Amino acid sequence: SIGPLNNSDYPSITVDTTGLSSYPQAGQTLSANVYIASNSVSIAAKVFVADSNNQWHSSSMTTLTPGTWVHLTYTLPGDISGPPKQLGIQFNSPGGTTISSDVYVNAVNWG
């Protein structure tokens, strides 16, 4: 299901960066391609990074167009604290309603 789990928690896909040999640095751009099926209800998504102090840094929500790959990006700020603890994509539905949809993610990169 996609929609708020409560007033401050939304579904997301995350990766713990602890085991990564490299990770995004301040000033680099994190990107990912996201797809929802053509028969899906439109939803929104954003790329985020949780820094070493668990402070979230993120792009604005972008509406995903059903049946189209959407390229999401976020440039890490210069004041990000230490190496990121998590990278991810957070989702929300229009109006905060709960919906069900398959979501596909491809080509997660930074540089």
Question: Can you walk through the features of this model?
Answer:
This protein has strands spanning 12-16, 29-36, 43-50, 56-58, 62-64, 70-75, 86-92, 103-110. It is an all-beta fold and 111 residues long. A hairpin with a 5-residue loop joins strand 3 (43-50) and strand 4. The model has no long low-confidence stretch (mean pLDDT 87).
Biggest pleated sheet: 5 strands, antiparallel
Could you name the ranges where pLDDT drops below 50 across 5 or more consecutive residues? Answer: none
Q: Quick one: how many beta strands?
A: 8
* Apparent shape: globular
Question: What amount of the residues lies in strands?
Answer: 35-45%
Distance between the termini: 32 Å
Chart the SSEs and their pairings.
Elements: E1 12-16, E2 29-36, E3 43-50, E4 56-58, E5 62-64, E6 70-75, E7 86-92, E8 103-110
Antiparallel strand pairs: 1-7, 2-6, 2-8, 3-4, 3-5, 3-7
Features:
111 residues; mainly beta; three-stranded antiparallel sheet; 8 strands
